[in-house]
Design brief:
Length: about 500
């Protein structure tokens, strides 16, 4: 009897252990499912694609696995909705939106239905004056990190985004008579373009090289045309992808029935309402009508004026007259008719407000700021400070993974070459003063660049910094000059204390 009872107890104990082990295993799996799934859902597309685009982790030709719900999108027309996220009550204060460290979450774009064809970004760097390249290279560096999608990456609106980066070939490298590919891989091309008077002309030549208007319309649904004077995009961590923000053009609901939109950070009313050429987005439905404005390629002394007078400015009113809309991102305002444009121009005329980029505006709304060219000397200090703040505090998840491929292509050619056989010294940044106490750049950069011009490409600074710069930022204190410069495609960081003469390169 005792043996029988003992056998029963042993059997029950074994059964209990087996059930406990199974329960423990199931609870562990369930716990993993509960913890892993949300984390996976939180992974930003950019972070996911960063690893996928790294060739050490994934072979060439790797294709993304479709996101959940992708199959259901394929059989319906595309409809996109914009959700605007209001700020707190404090936003009524005029200083509020600029007192924050970074952009506030502004808008979410969600789409259902089949994505549009690809978007094409054409980005041009200017090279006419090598000493002006520092600003453009800073702009380009930011765009490379936050504006370039990976080869297999889709957005809410577009199945892919392709890029053509162009530059007029520097004279020391020769010249080209037709657009010429320097390097290409995946969704990125680097291209020399013939010398011309303006960015619109270069963009038009790229479109011709890609097969012409019909070929581009067949492959692409949207064009973003930028030059090296555009700094951005500036966005919050949760904002919609920048190319989608441009394509939706501020509309609460966008569909194929929405008239084609031309969009830019701001709308100028100088002469006639138009989008300025440093950043233009447009749906390719009207590319046939728009293309003639990209063909003003006269290399005479009047060429630049012709680009503006017969390209940039009249393109705006023609777009409206043809049934398209024009949208200003910074003002979140859409012009739907020529009468809307006339009303805007008249309202601005009354208050003598013509060029919006010469006033301070919210860069988080505009996506891009104009930094470069003649505007560099006139940019509002507040706008410049705001841009610097937004770059400093930009969210890590806004960094896109297409930068890896672009960096690789840039390293394989001479697309960013500043010299060749010639000695070019380009001041990137500099300050004069007492380290961490008072560091002044205003007037310092200009004086150093004058020295380079006076000394045929060499930088010469005398041993009396106060006399050299014409002011003393900290009387009775030891002062230092710190310089970041680029010499023949190489970076250098120099320092000179008061009382030391500086010559670069030596000799």
């Amino acid at each position: 009897m005792v043996r029988s009872r003992t056998a029963v107890y042993i059997t029950l104990w074994c059964t209990f252990c087996i059930l406990l082990l199974a329960a423990f295993r199931d609870s562990t799996v369930a716990h993993q499912a509960k913890t892993i799934t949300p984390i996976a859902q939180q992974v930003n597309n950019s972070e996911l694609l960063s690893a996928q685009n790294d060739e050490q982790n994934h072979p060439e030709g790797y294709t993304l696995v479709a996101r959940p719900g992708e199959a259901s999108r394929a059989d319906r027309p595309l409809i996109c909705n914009t959700t605007w996220h209001p700020f707190s009550e404090d936003s009524n204060h005029p200083e509020y939106k600029h007192d924050q460290q970074g952009c506030r979450h502004r808008q979410t774009i969600t789409c259902r239905g089949k994505r549009l064809k690809r978007a094409l970004v054409i980005y041009m760097l200017q090279t006419k004056k090598v000493y002006d390249m520092a600003v453009e290279l800073n702009n380009f560096d930011l765009f490379m990190n936050v504006g370039v999608f990976a080869e297999h990456e889709s957005t809410e609106m577009f199945e892919r985004v392709d890029y053509v980066f162009t530059r007029m070939m520097p004279p020391h490298l020769g010249k080209v008579s037709v657009p010429t590919i320097i390097a290409e891989k995946g969704n990125i091309k680097l291209m020399w373009v013939p010398s011309g008077p303006c960015d619109l002309c270069a963009h038009g030549r790229v479109i011709a090289h890609l097969g012409g208007v019909d070929a581009v319309k067949a492959k692409y649904s949207f064009l973003a045309l930028l030059n090296g004077g555009a700094r951005g995009p500036f966005q919050a961590a949760g904002d919609a992808e920048w190319i989608d923000v441009m394509a939706v053009g501020g509309q609460a609901t966008w569909s194929s029935a929405t008239p084609p939109i031309m969009v830019g950070p701001t709308v100028s009313s100088q002469v006639s309402v138009h989008i300025q050429t440093y950043c233009i987005g447009l749906h390719t439905v009207r590319l046939t009508e728009y293309y003639p404005f990209l063909t003003q390629c006269n290399n005479s002394g009047a060429g630049k004026a012709m680009c503006i007078d017969f390209g940039e400015i009249p393109a705006g009113i023609e777009w409206l007259q043809g049934g398209g809309w024009i949208h200003s991102l910074s003002a979140n305002d859409t012009l739907r008719t020529p009468d809307d444009a006339a009303a805007l121009a008249e309202a601005r005329r009354r208050i003598d407000f013509v060029a919006p980029t010469h006033a301070h505006y919210d860069l988080c709304s505009a996506l891009f700021a104009k930094f470069g060219g003649t505007f560099t000397n006139h940019v509002r200090a507040r706008t410049a400070a705001h841009a610097a703040q937004l770059i400093l505090f930009r969210p890590l998840n806004r960094t896109l993974s297409g930068r890896f491929l672009l960096q690789k292509l840039l390293g394989s050619g001479r697309f960013l070459s500043l010299s060749g056989g010639l000695n070019f010294t380009v001041i990137v940044n500099a300050w004069y003063g007492v380290p961490e106490v008072i560091e002044i750049s205003k007037g310092v950069l200009e004086r150093l660049r004058e020295s380079i011009d006076e000394n045929r490409g060499r930088l010469v600074v005398s041993n009396n910094l106060t006399e050299y710069f014409g002011f003393d930022p900290a009387p009775n204190a030891s002062k230092v000059l710190a310089i970041h410069l680029r010499y023949n495609d190489e970076e250098h960081h120099l320092r000179a204390a008061d009382g030391q003469e500086l010559q670069f390169p030596d000799g």
